[in-house]
Structure formats: structure tokens, C-alpha cells
């Protein structure tokens, strides 16, 4: 017998392109998981319609930002490869194929499954051609009274330049023929200010005059109503044909901040320019004639590969109007968010009580299962409390009619508090809203800053400075989600109230960094990007790797929205190779490949898509039994770690650590209803309960806990 020497194990190149998934294709894979919710018959019918609309809305933003950015890279000659080894041009080609397949999948399911299911429940989305004579009469009256006065037909001929087609607009391309026999082109914009689904009966979607809710609802698409009444817009002309088209423009505008004298002015200008970005997608019906298609392609300067043809409605995001129909039997059962036990006895009219509750111990909020009201009450108490000297807060996306901003205005205007607010003007698609709030706040004497050059301020933090006896105490709210009272009911997020001295001091230093010239390079407890977050996070990962190499139990359990950063992924691969057990709950984009032998076989990746948008970021390190949890605003993406001001904060209370670990993170891992498990190729399999298992839906379980707490 001959002995053979053992062959040395060849080291794996952890930078190899094959170990990374494409970010853009991973984002489209997430849209398939959202579409899965529309195709899930266990979801209420109007919620399924809502998920179709969400896919449509997500794709609009995807093309505006991600495809728009890749187009600019390709057109300026960028050949740098993505981590998975693709040029911008190759990525665009792959995106086209997958996006067309996704749009067709959503359309097919809508037309063949959801429309018939709606009919069975008395909700009819009808074509104008299928309306009865009486229905047409009512719809045509609506056209004359409401639609016609809003419309502006725009001609295209030697005397009229081709009209500007605004971003996300739905339009009709019309061919008419005059008495001279010449064919002419005109464009009509479908008014976005009117319901895109016209109620055929005035009570459709709402209540009857007697206050009852009808069981049958009838709608027809607005563009079809306009098309049927084109003669009123072109009297004396023959209508030859008309076809809808929908345009998406590049909105990934680079803001040249270093050249900006006034950042607010430059942001306003960039928002205006967004309307004129290059067209990155045009949706048309499959039967659009080549003549019209060519006019649009030539005048809009569209790459023919950016034209997508569909059979059904072009703007799926407009289906959100159906989801608003007043049919509670076809929607998720509502629930009343609970209030944490520490705050149940707090009197909102006694401004000092909430601070007393926080002094007794840190308080955790888990939205939307816990109410967002305590956050607003915290700020209102600060505004009214004579002992409070100052309020400082970051605002990213606050929405319209914000109780948070109104409270800050009251604090400055009525109670003469010193209020300092950082309003992030570069919050994409919220720029106009934030500009408006910034101006209102400034007019009321609030100290408003717009952030740091080259960085978005994405952190979620509010600081209240209070005089107590002869001392100053700082109270802080830190969160994973925006200070937005609407999304707080729709997004899953964590928040913490604390008066920890070190965190309070860190919060003060952070605001000095944001509003002044602080150059602090480290913080006592907070991890702040781009200052110390990446370095400290990498140190904690390497420490976990060392524990595993020493034969100790080692585990990482992370929950986030996206995992893209290559250095972080590389460290997670090293952790797996060292024997660290890694569980990742990643809602959306994940560029890591789990389950690769010898590389990531100790890594599992899960995604939860359900009733609420999973939005919290939680990072758990076993740390040789001295468990560490950080939570906050930062995903593991290059932009979060390098180009944004982000904050991760520690959860140090032992009971709170156990609660987050066992009652939140481990619960997600046991989900067998809304959970998908990622495969090495980037695809996901939908987990289902085994024969002996009870179905477990994490979000429904947390709703049940909230209901029980509210009833107690």
C-alpha cells in the first residue's frame, strides 16, 4: 500500500467575482418576493392588489435611480466592474430581461387571477368598450364636467415643437386627420390630479348618501375615458387612433455641493432638473403601431431597448386606489398598537412624567406593534416642560402634516425653547417636502441646518436637555425609522428612550459635529458613520472570528434592509470559514451568497415580506457569552458606511437584550409562513410548515402580543 501525502488546501480568493451577487438583480429578486404576496391567496384580496401596486411603485423608483445611474455610467464610458464582475452596459442588459419578465408576471397575474377574484367580490375594473349604454352616459357626463376642463392637447408639427413629457406621466399619443387628409400627431397628458380609476357609480370606493357601504363597485381607467371622448378635444378632425404611454426619467441627479453657495437653493434646482432627466423606461401597449412608437422613440431620444410593452394597465402603482375601497372584509384586520408598560401610567398633560419614566430605566419601542404616540409625547413634553432648556433633532423623512415638526414649531414659537433641527434636504423624493419644512422652521426661529457637505444625515436621533436641580440631564430618543407618524404604522422599526450619561454626551457631540466644526474621531458608546462605525463594526466581527478559532461558541445574528458592502461580506465569509454560525435576516438586496461549501456553509440568509415593511437594523454578536446588540439607522452598504451620517446605538440592558434576541430575532428565524430562504444562486425558496409544525407568521404573532398587551 502506498501512502499519499495530504494535498494542501488551496486558499479561496474571497475577492472573486463569483462569490458576489449583483446588487441590481438582487433588488429585482426582492420585487418577486413582493409579487409573491400578491399571489398569496391567504392574504386579503385588496391587500394583494396593494402588493401589485407596490411592485409598480418600486419599479418606478428602481428605474429612476438605479437604472438612471447605470445609464449615466455607461454613457460617460465607465467600465469599472461591479463586485460580481459586470460592466454598467452588461448590468443594463441583464436588468432589461429580468424587469420585462417581472412586469409581465405582475400583469399576467393581475389580469388572469386578481381581476376575476375582484369580480367575485363585487369589484369591477371595466374597459370602456364593455360598459353599458347607461354606464357610458354617466362616465361621459363625468368627462364633460370634470375631465375635459383639465385637459390640454398639444400638437406636434412644424409650428409646434414636440411637447415635454414629464417624469412618471401617463399620456395618450393621438393621430388625427384633418380635412386636407394630412395625418397629425398630438399628445394629451392624463391628469395625475384626478383618480386614475374613474368610479362608474358615484358611491364606488366610498359610501352611499345614506352612509352605508355598497357591496358592488365599478371603475374604468381614466385614460380609456379620455380616449373615448377625444372628439371633444379635436373638433372637425377625424380621430385615427390613440394609444397610452408612460415615461420614467432618470432622477439620479448628482448635486455639486462643493459649488453651492446655498444648499437649499441648489437642492431646489436639482429637483426642477429631475423633470428633464433622460428617459430610462417607456411603457407602451403591445398593439401600439410602429408609426407612433417611432415618433416617441425619435423625439424622446429613447434607446429602443428601454421600451417595454404590456397588455394591461401600464401604471400598476395606480392600483393603490383600489386598495382604498371601503371594504374591511377584504383587508387586513386593523389593530390598536400597544404602549409599553413603563409608559402606560404617564399622563400626557404632565410634561415631567415621561422623563421620570425614562429615569427609571431605558424604554424600548417596537413599531408598529408599539404606538408611535410616545415619541410625539416625548417631544410635546419637552416643549411644554419649563425645566427643558433645548431640543435638538434630525429629520430625514417626516411627511406631510407632521405632528413631530408641529411640536418643534410649538416649542420654539409658544414655549420659547431653544430648538435646533437638522433637516436632510437630500432625502430622495422628499426634497420638496423637507425644503418646505425647513423654511417654516426657520421662520419660527428654529436653528435649522442642512447637513454636511458630501454626506446625507440618515441618523434618527432626538436630544432633550433638561435642568434638574443644580444639574443638567440629557434625554435621548434613538431609532431605526424616520420621525414619520404615517410610516410608523406601516414600517417595522425599533426605538429607545434613554438618559444614559454617555449616550447623552455622545448625542451632544454628534449634534456639534452636524451643526458646527467638531472633529471628534470617537464616541463613548455610539457608532457613528463615517467616523467610527465601520472600524468598530469590523473589530467586533474579527473578535467573533477569533472566538470561533479558539474553539468557543460564536454566533452572529443580523437583521437589516440590505447587505451590499464588499468588505463586510468578505468578513462574513471569513467568519463562516472560522466556524461562526451566521444568520442574516435581509429584507431586500443581499449580495452575499450563502451555503457555498468551504466559504459560506455556516451562513443562512432569510427574507421576511409581509403586511409591514421590515425596516429595523439589529446586529447581535454572541461575544463569548457577553452578548452585544447594536441597532440603528445603518445598513451594511457602502453609502451607509461611507457617505452618510448614521448612528448605531448599543442595547445594554440584559432583559432588553434577551427580549430582542428571543422575542424578535429568533422569532423571525422560526417563521414558516412569510419567510423565504436564500439559495447560493440568489433565488429564494418559500418556507412552509412541516407536517408536524404549526404555521407561524412573525408579524401576526407580534400583532397578537400587542393586542394582548392593549387588553391587559
Q: Could you walk me through the main structural features you see in this protein, from its secondary elements to its overall organization?
A:
By secondary structure, the protein is α/β, with parallel strands linked by helices. 36% of the residues lie in helices and 21% in strands. It folds into three domains: 18-330, polyphosphate kinase like, CATH 3.30.1840.10; 341-523, Endonuclease Chain A (Endonuclease, Chain A, 2-Layer Sandwich), CATH 3.30.870; 528-711, Endonuclease Chain A (Endonuclease, Chain A). It starts with 22 loop residues before the first helix and ends with a helix. The model is unreliable at 1-9 and 254-261 (pLDDT under 50).
Task: Report the helical percentage.
Answer: 25-40%
CATH superfamily label of the largest domain: Polyphosphate kinase middle domain
CATH topology of the largest domain: polyphosphate kinase like
Structural class: alpha/beta
- Percent of residues in beta strands: 15-25%
The end-to-end span amounts to 76 Å
Radius of gyration: 28 Å
The coarse silhouette is globular
Low-confidence stretches: 1-9, 254-261
Number of strands: 27
CATH class category label of the largest domain:
Alpha Beta
Briefly summarize what is shown.
This protein is of the alpha/beta class and 712 residues long. The protein is 36% helix and 21% strand.
Keywords:
polyphosphate kinase like, 36% helix, 712 residues, 27 strands, Endonuclease, Chain A, 3 domains, globular, disordered N terminus, alpha/beta, eight-stranded mixed sheet
